[in-house]
Amino acid sequence: MIKESWKEKGYVDEPTATDIDLKSEIRKLCKEKNAVILAHYYTDKPLQEIADFIGDSLALARKAAKTEADIIVMCGVHFMGETCKILCPDKKVLIPDANASCSLAESCPADKFREFVKAHPDHKVISYVNTTAATKTVTDVVVTSSNARQIVESFPKEQKLIFGPDRNLGRYINSVTGREMLLWDGACHVHERFSTGKILELKTQYPSAKVLAHPECKGPVVKLADVVGSTAMLLNYAVKSEAQQFIVATESGILFEMQRMAPEKQFIPVPPDDGETQGATCGCNECAYMRLNTLEKLYNTLKYEWPEVKISPEIINAARKPIDEMLNISERLGI
Ligand code: 13P
Ligand code: SF4
Fold this sequence. Notes:
Elements: H1 22-33, E1 35-40, H2 45-50, E2 53-55, H3 57-66, E3 71-75, H4 78-87, E4 92-94, H5 103-106, H6 110-118, E5 123-128, H7 133-136, E6 141-143, H8 148-153, E7 160-164, H9 167-177, E8 182-183, H10 196-205, E9 210-213, H11 219-224, E10 227-228, H12 231-240, E11 245-249, H13 254-261, E12 266-269, H14 295-304, H15 313-333
Parallel strand pairs: 1-2, 1-3, 3-4, 5-6, 5-7, 7-8, 9-10, 9-11, 11-12
Helix pairs in contact: 1-14, 3-4, 4-15, 12-13
The structure holds 1,3-dihydroxyacetonephosphate and iron/sulfur cluster (SF4).
């Protein structure tokens, strides 16, 4: 977990931004500073509403790589800010809360992963984008949930592969490709809390609903789903499908965009099975890290240009290669 506080920046506490119209002040600051706001689908609705661009991790990385803004504010989690910085080392990359980590990134410390990789020298290394910049330096090609399957399939069948850190996504890719990749034993604290029991309960209530699941969910949940895919893939399917009801097994922030894109359809979030809703009032399954992003923090970040994502040039250079490899393969395969 990254520990940064406003005290280190010389303030007693995070400055309060009350009595101002946060949304219009944020827009003003963006214009003054030539800043762009990117937000992941899992952030809160006000952030998705104010962002210049919302998307899944692949789309956000692509957007960052092409932006002409001087400042990028990444509303998401820390590794997403790092991806922006790696792709745009000359730009200032800000994140509203530097403590917004990710359970997958945390499950795969670079030193431990390096030892694992060293123990299997004949393997190529595929890492999910949900990793730290340091872990990406031990990687041959990065993938996101939008392109993981095709990128794995782009390797010759006889090539031995390591996949980290998400064991659920790794197992799913193994099952659909027939590969036997060696898997790192990591998981996401949000997606691991979905159960077949809760989904089956919802299915009896909404028998014609389609079940949508992110591949970070456990195997039995994925097996039960009508559609398995990244946040963008699930969204696309929901918008285009003739079905009218959808049971959604991924972080509930995606429901804002689903409902906005298909207002006439009904989206039912699957609650976590342990009753742990981490402060959510709707019984939804929320990512505690994503929820650290707030409108007030976004305003402060733009105003004080802090917290800033900083990565050493050596790590940027080494982590850029597997990200570029992913972007190049994806372009070549038309993903
Ligand atoms: P996507 O690549 O689908 O945006 O997923 C990112 C993520 O963190 C899922 O938990
Ligand atoms: Fe990481 Fe899971 Fe949160 Fe996605 S939902 S950012 S994988 S902790």
